[in-house]
Structures are given as structure tokens and as C-alpha cells.
Amino acid sequence: MDCFGCRLANHMEETNVVFEDEYITCILDIDPLNEGHTLILPKIHYKEPEEIDESTMKAINKASVMISRALKAIYNPDGITIMQNGGIFNDLGHYHMHVFPRYKDDGFGWIEPEKPSIKDLKQVKSRITEGLTKLK
């Protein structure tokens, strides 16, 4: 397997597995934002979320809820962040979801642009609903 994410998900690399089933493997991130930072990786190679079959996506979502509950019980965080980076922002080249505990002053965040006007939101809504219609 050339894909590092596939090797991680299929025990071909050393990892710290916290949960797995027939579709996914959940491992601790080696460069965690906070203690407990977990990655959910499908065992089959997928790069983008739209490629993932329904059974695997259900397993990913179920695991994200289970891990969130465990992290809340263990670490008593201020919140939980669940995120996925696609395209050029997917540094692993294999779909993976991050689930990690958050604390008020943990330093994680992003800069938000100015809020769009209501007119802008209506234009965006129109573009997206048209795009969704074309996908049907």
C-alpha cells in the first residue's frame, strides 16, 4: 500500500488504536492539538468525503459520537471539535476526521472574514440549491 493513511488504518504502521470496526480505525494523532486528539480513518482508501460509501460514512459518524462522549467524560473539556480537511488541505492524502477536546484558551481557531450581507447569503443559497438540484 502506497497510501500512508491506508497503512495506518490497516495496522501496517505503528499506531495507538482506541477503537475500530470493520470499516474504520480510530487512532491517536501523533501531533495532537490537545490530549485525546483522535483521527478516524476508513480502512478502504478514500481521499474526499463524497467518495465514501454509505456504510463507511455511518461508521465514521458513529465513531465520532462515541469518541466525543468518551473525551467529554475523560477530559471535561469546554467543547469538542470535529473536522475534516479536504483537497490540498488534506495533508495525509487519505480521508480522515479529527475529533479533539477543546478548551477556552487552547489557541486553536481561525480568522473569520467579515459577515456577508443578507443579500450575499441569498445569492450563495441560490447557487448552492441550484448545484444540489443538478446533482440529483
Q: Can you count the helices?
A: 3
Roughly what is the average pLDDT, rounded to an integer?
A: 93
Low-confidence stretches: none
> Strand order of the main beta sheet, please?
1-2-3-5-4
State the helicity in percent bands. 25-40%
In total, the number of domains comes to 1
Largest pleated sheet: 5 strands, antiparallel
Q: Measured on Cα atoms, how large is the radius of gyration?
A: 17 Å
The CATH topology assignment is: HIT family, subunit A
Q: How many β-strand runs?
A: 5
Shape: globular
Blueprint of the fold:
Elements: H1 4-9, E1 17-20, E2 24-28, E3 38-42, H2 54-75, E4 79-83, E5 97-102, H3 118-135
Antiparallel strand pairs: 1-2, 2-3, 3-5, 4-5
What this model shows, in words?
Residues 4-109 form the HIT domain. The active site is at residue 98. With 136 residues, the chain is an alpha+beta fold. The protein has a single domain (4-135), classed as 2-Layer Sandwich (HIT family, subunit A). Helix content is 34%, strand content 18%. The protein has 3 helices and 5 strands. It has helices at residues 4-9, 54-75, 118-135; strands spanning 17-20, 24-28, 38-42, 79-83, 97-102. Strands 1-2-3-5-4 form a 5-stranded antiparallel beta sheet. The chain is globular. The mean pLDDT is 93.
